[in-house]
Amino acid sequence: MKKKLIAGNWKMNGSVASNEALIQALSAGAVDAQCLMAVCVPAIYLVQVQRLVAGSGIELGAQDVSAHESGAYTGEVSAAMLREYGVRYALVGHSERRQYHGESDAAVAGKAQRALAAGITPIVCVGETLAEREQGLTEEVVKRQLAAVIHTNGHCISEIAVAYEPVWAIGTGKTASPEQAQHVHAVLRAQLRAATEHADKIHILYGGSMNAANAVQLLSQADIDGGLVGGASLKAVDFLSIIAAASV
Ligand code: 13P
């Protein structure tokens, strides 16, 4: 069985001092972890955190990557630049980027493509809003979001990771039930199976108010291969208990 992957998404949080304290506590607490671990940090802190996680088993992740290779794209950071600083994972298409930065499915697919070309695993985020769920559109929405990435990335698709993050569960304290999450994960797995014979090795993470209390149940579902953790990744004790839940 593949190891689970627990990735923290710090979002726009942290400081030089708090990053140091957090990574020190995580490194000390995660020595026996049996899962894969990553922290996706603000771009400005990648260099600092690269140094802090060295030798700890915690991988470095970015929260976004440009869909362009290089050139006149003010403010953007390319996949090749991220790779130079040891970045192993990059979130693409997080719902906050889709919502506040107008990222389309096509843009997200382009970002995944750049990440893959640079040897970075894109963690492709998909998820429905509350209104979409209430209209019965959940499957349609997540399949459309993933289809764009599959279409653009063809045979490389087995190198991606996916995160199912229902928008209504992000930062709200409302977690999808294990059954609700498993249902969508199974839909995504089936879609990946139709695209690659290696679909079973793809990590499909759940994200949205994952915490120490609900992690065990969520992570015990057949198609939930890990977690993408926001708020609870900012506190070492909470993140470590999710790591422990994924280490069984
Ligand atoms: P929360 O864990 O804070 O709900 O955030 C989830 C998320 O958006 C991770 O990318």
Q: Could you explain the architecture of this structure?
A:
With 248 residues, the chain is an alpha/beta fold. 41% of the residues lie in helices and 16% in strands. An 8-stranded parallel β-barrel has the order 1-2-3-4-5-6-7-8, surrounded by 5 helices. Helix 1 (16-29) runs parallel beside helix 2 (46-53) and helix 1 (16-29) runs parallel beside helix 10. 47% of the residues are buried. The model has no long low-confidence stretch (mean pLDDT 97). The structure holds 1,3-dihydroxyacetonephosphate.
Question: Summary?
Answer:
By secondary structure, the protein is an alpha/beta fold. The protein contains 10 helices and 8 strands.
Q: What is the helix/strand order?
A: EHEHEHEHHEHHEHEHEH
**% residues in beta strands:** 15-25%
Low-confidence stretches: none
Q: Globular, elongated, flat, extended or rod-shaped: what is the shape? A: globular
Task: Describe the SSE topology.
Elements: E1 5-9, H1 16-29, E2 36-41, H2 46-53, E3 58-62, H3 79-84, E4 87-92, H4 95-100, H5 105-117, E5 121-126, H6 130-134, H7 138-153, E6 161-164, H8 178-195, E7 204-207, H9 215-219, E8 226-229, H10 236-245
Parallel strand pairs: 1-2, 1-8, 2-3, 3-4, 4-5, 5-6, 6-7, 7-8
Helix pairs in contact: 1-2, 1-10, 5-7, 7-8
